[in-house]
Protein 1
Amino acid sequence: MILLSCFLLVVIGKDLLFSGTIFFGPVFVPSAEDKLKLMLELAEPKPGEKIVDLGSGDGKILVELARKGYQSEGMEINPILVRRSRKNLRKLRLEQWAAVRRANFWKSDFSSYDLVFLYGMKHVMKRLEKKMLAELKPGARVVSNYFRFPDWRPEKVRDEVRLYRR
Ligand SMILES: C[S@@+](CC[C@H](N)C(=O)[O-])C[C@H]1O[C@@H](n2cnc3c(N)ncnc32)[C@H](O)[C@@H]1O
């Protein structure tokens, strides 16, 4: 058991292990700084908009939104990442700017959101495209880091970051 733990720490990396990825399934990779900056530029959030990060990971996008004065919410399936993101927000005294919920986005309704942040995985994009086109209100925007929807044409693309408008 000790040997196995050492192996996991060295080979898989402590962040992956402690994020719970290997125990809870979906992969956690935070958006890189330059992509995060681009996502916010393309998103052009406005005060009062309902903003969500689908699969909010450690809360990196929520923290950046809060720093810029935008309220947002995070939806994250991995309970360890939910706890970690809440702790990060608390440490930065930004907890009143973002609420993180443990939730499965497949079981959530997107119809109330004006702006959706997404850094998904290739294999979820087709199903997510269908769900978003069915549920998002007209005019709602989706900013996707790297992964593209197979049929939905983006309004803008910059360095693999895409802006979609419903
Ligand atoms: C690539 S990470 C992105 C993290 C963060 N959005 C960012 O850009 O830094 C994807 C996140 O989505 C979460 N996730 C995957 N499937 C999910 C689902 N069905 N419902 C909620 N969260 C999910 C994973 O646990 C992971 O934290």
Note: Confidence is low (pLDDT under 50) at residues 6-20.
Protein 2
Amino acid sequence: MGDYFGPTQRLYLETQVDWEALLGLSRGAPVDVDAEVGAYRSILETTARLAQSFETDARKHWSEEATLTDDGGATSPPHIRRAYDQLREAGLICLTVGEAYGGYGLPTLLNGIVIEMIARADPSLMMVIGLQTGAANDIEKFGSEELKKKWLPRFTSGEVEGCMDLTEPQAGSDLGGITTRATDLPDGSVKVDGQKIFISNGGGEVHLVLARDDDGYDKSRGSTRGLSLVLVPRHQEDGSLNGVRVTRLERKLGIHGSATCEMLFDGAIGWRLGQKGQGFQAMLELMNAARLGVASQALGLADAALSDAIEYAWQRKQFGKPIAEQPLVRSMLAKMVVNAEAVRALLYHTYTLLDLNNAREKALARDSLSAAERSEIQQDFDRDTTRVRLFTPLCKYFATEVCDDLSRDALQVFGGIGFTMDSNAGKYHADSLIMTIYEGTSEIQASFALKEIGKGALGVVFHEIRGELAEMENDAVRARLAKRVTEMTQRVEQSLAILFSDPAYALLRAKLMAQMVIDVAAATELLHQVGADPARIDVAESFIMRRFLETEHASRRIEENAEGRLERDARVLARASG
Ligand SMILES: Cc1cc2nc3c(=O)[nH]c(=O)nc-3n(C[C@H](O)[C@H](O)[C@H](O)COP(=O)(O)OP(=O)(O)OC[C@H]3O[C@@H](n4cnc5c(N)ncnc54)[C@H](O)[C@@H]3O)c2cc1C
């Protein structure tokens, strides 16, 4: 069993993030960086130790499911409650919430690493912790001061849990289909009526519900305009129930310990977060954070599968030697390691950009900046907003697809035992299956990325990447690989020119395009890591050599297979549909 606080996590904590610049921007005053980083290290060490201690219980009770409670709620199985209580006692709940409300104001990178560690031990427990933080952050960003004071200390102490309620039977990927109704009441509160499905942690006290405003209800139907985000507690002020009920629990293929609830809102009273009619924008903030959260969850789960597969491959002997020494198995394991590291590189890079922008936002809110400083910070902020907007769906797409493939390969490494419950490989793969679906499916993430590319994001991203690669070309260790990655950027742009001449064909190729951009960005970040630790060259080289050829292949598929492709697919499907 590998260390939960691994070398790449330490690398980012110690060398890859310029904490002095980031904390300086955020606080606007001198910061004792060593003390801050020391505190971060201590949080990560405590989380790693605790998470590792949950592992045995999580595997043993993997199939245990949530249950309904008498008061119309739902509760997770006992092993999840025990682990939650320990995290709560250690103060490891809602870490990104500001200190004014009892949190640590922890950077998102560190929170991402915490989530990854918890998910490695138990992806179901991560659902509780991840939604808890996500809901609290949204309240902090969009809630009135009164709502923040009322709820956030209860979130950071772990007293209440949260969830996000978007999906309805007819509104899955397309949230324009939402019919749950939000009606204004004279005292400024909002009455919520409707049904939601698949709500993770739906037994939690605080629901953030996306609902359609009663004013203009018919006019806005079918679109994401006219929606409000409403904070709806399960109980009223006097402790009585508030018209929120779990009507059913889903039975699932994996993440059994996470309660997946059908919810009924029947005259439930809540309070708006953000502006009336702007709920989709407020929910987008939560969804983007949740997408990165699911990417961290997938990475943690991938680590669990990888660690078990490597350990088993050294123990299991066939033909007189460990199977880890058979070239086919060794290469499969090496590919798993490299892909997990590439996911980690892109994800940590994205978190770092997000943290910088959160710090810039705080700096821009201060009056003490000169006009020149303000203009420079604003420019950097705008550039990195574009980068984060493109990287967020790419992280979710890449991490969850890699987790799916990697956990399947781990099962293969275990041979027959992998298909039985005597190993944990099947559990990992079963848990991985949901990750390419919730928080927006892989197809939706690829389409979002394409939309951002269409708005010009790739130009901004590639401008930065090319500058970074050009600097690496002066460095003997990285020059050859940096050149290859620069060539990959050219191939991507060639393919893009073809795609943008035909929007329907572009949608068909959204996943190929997403993967090509991911490969360039992850490769560049892996090369940055080599700059800090030259021993990482083999991982970077393995990824780049493989992905260089894949990029060539993908771009030829886009260029040479364009003619008549959409129509041919339609004919093939028409025949199969009878
Ligand atoms: C265990 C679990 C937990 C969940 N937790 C939550 C939660 O906490 N809160 C919440 O609100 N929801 C939650 N969900 C719901 C989840 O987010 C949705 O299931 C998901 O967004 C997909 O919606 P859908 O199931 O309706 O699929 P559909 O939207 O019907 O999609 C079906 C298929 O069509 C594809 N597709 C649809 N539209 C397009 C398009 N435009 N282009 C390309 N392909 C497309 C999809 O990619 C998918 O492959 C959860 C679901 C599960 C199973």
Note: The radius of gyration is 24 Å.
